[in-house]
Amino acid sequence: MLYLGGTPWCLCLRKLLGFEHLKELYHKDELFKEIYDLCTNGANEGFYIHDGFLFKDEKLYMRLTMVFLFKDEAHEGGLIGHFGGYKTYKTMLEHFFWPHMKRYVHHLCDKCIVCKFANSKVDLSMDFVLGLPRSKGGKDSIFVVVDRFSIMTHFIPCHKVDDAYLMANLFFREVVRLHGLLMTIVSDRDSKFLNHFWRTLWSKLGTKLLFLTACHPQIDG
């Protein structure tokens, strides 16, 4: 099976609407058509054709006439989201390639108001779903983290008995690497979140911890 940056090709087709339309555009762009024709009899300087699509080094090769798909579907349509220029470029680079790609992605994200707001203010809420049947890996709970601006939600398998240190490692590996450092974290008064280690860690990083109370649960939005 062909993979794009670790993602099965068939899944990429489902993720990006209008994918089949790329095949029609190959023959309308003169430079594109020249490269495409050279690959009809086999790979040529890193370019090759698979299922009618043109690739360069296992990345779908695009021209600026096709980049509207990135803007409409990947950036604004939810395939990637509004993570700013650097993260968006790195994610796109795993699957696609076109000339001056880095410059284009940064230019688009620099003009995107949502990107600027989302990356300047990151507020998360978190909670646990406990008492679930054990998975094959022994996990019996789910750590739920929600970006309060974009409503992006992370469902992270964990153990009910994991302490604050283990939860911090899990949180940085699964959440902070995507969202960056945070302004606020909203949670209930679980012992893990009241732990001295947890509170000291976020205090040093400049993140404000907000705790729910039984009388005022509306703080969670």
Automatic annotation (TrEMBL):
GO terms for molecular function: nucleic acid binding. GO terms for biological process: DNA integration. Residues 116-221 form the Integrase catalytic domain. This is Integrase catalytic domain-containing protein. It comes from Mucuna pruriens (Velvet bean).
